[in-house]
Amino acid sequence: MGLAKTDIQNGHRAEPTDGNILTTTIDKVVNWGRRNSLWPMPFGTACCAIEMMATLASKYDLSRFGSEAIRFSPRQSDLLIVSGRISIKMMPVLKRIYDQMPEPKWVISMGACASCGGVFDTYTLIQGVDQFLPVDVYIPGCPPRPEDLIDAVMQVQRKIDKGTLPKGSEVAYNE
Amino acid sequence: MSEEKEITEETQPLVLKRLREKFPDALLADVEVSNGVSVVVNKENIFALLAYLKTELAYTFLVDITAVDNSNLESELIKYDYARYMVVYQLYTFEGETQRIRVKVPVHEKDLKVQSVTKLWKGANWLERETYDMFGIDFEGHPDLQRILMPDDFDGHPLRKDYPLRGRGERERFNFDKQNA
Q1: Residues of A with Cβ-Cβ distance to B166 under 8 angstroms
Q2: What are residue A161's phi and psi, to 5 degrees?
């Protein structure tokens, strides 16, 4: 096991015995693993994607939160980051990518356009991807700063911490 | 409109003089704009005039093809026998003084057809598809006239003035099953 002492102090009810054995619950261990190795699937369609790239680069460094393993295959990802405008022609593509992601999976709706259409109140733009996808965390801003994306990833981590097995993205977590 | 000025026989650019000689009945209007010339041509002569511009007057570069829906602009409608649409061609030459020329064609709603210029410029292919997609104007002789921006099953032509800005519910209505089939 690799639980650090701080994890134990932070509420993982693990009891070290003889310095070698500790006891905990399956939920705690699984959630701990999931929380700290989120593999994001980037869906960047506008300027939010530039901020997402900055978040991944050295200055902000999302790998400090265990989410640096960006996958461009949805089949290897568990965190969908929708960053940018989604048009009516792109929505079926996004939906298909989301469907291809294995459970459990989480969705971040990054920025005003993905969350509510932003300033583009027109015939061709989806007024919020939450009409078609179960969004876990919304990020306001146009575009949001990298700190906002990091905060959203951390909120997803907190959400994962509260989850229990078995679960899928459709299951409502106890907040 | 402030950039337009009257053209007299003496001051007219050479390209306009040539066009007036070659197509005496085709030009409905012409005007000099800040960096070129703008002419309005009747539909029957559009292909011949553009071919003449390209081959004889060295306007080899087709910058853009688009259209304008004048249905809310009475002052424009009245000039061209209430033709609702105006198809616009922007040409450029790398030689000569008048480098830019804009050719406009009035198109009536009951006869939404213009001859395709894909035989002159291969690059006209996608430009005409976009104009067809946005305005529903049919380009006769186009090799593959289908939508280019909107989804294939989209209903309507969104840059027409009677198309509502927020659409007719397309952005809320999806059939994902059909997509995955």
Answers
A1: 121-123
A2: -60, -30
d(CA A92, CA B108) in angstroms, rounded, equals 36
Min Cα separation A82/chain B (Å):
17
Contacts of A121 in chain B (CB under 8 A): 165-166
Contacts of A132 in chain B (CB under 8 A): 174, 176
Could you give the ipTM of this predicted complex? Answer: 0.78
Residues 6+ apart with CB under 8 A from A5: none
Quote the pLDDT of residue B95. Answer: 85
Tell me the per-residue pLDDT of A125-140, one tens digit each, with 9 for 90 and over: 999 999 999 999 999 9
CB A123 to CB B165 under 8 A? yes
Count of beta carbons in the 10 Å neighbourhood of residue B44: 12
What's the predicted TM-score (pTM) here?
0.80
pLDDT digits (tens, 9 = 90+) for B45-65: 999 999 999 998 889 999 999
Is residue B181 predicted with pLDDT exceeding 50?
Answer: no
Assess contact for A40 and A70: CB atoms under 8 A.
Answer: yes
A28: tokens are 């705690």
Nearest CB among A88, A96, A99 relative to B171 is that of A88
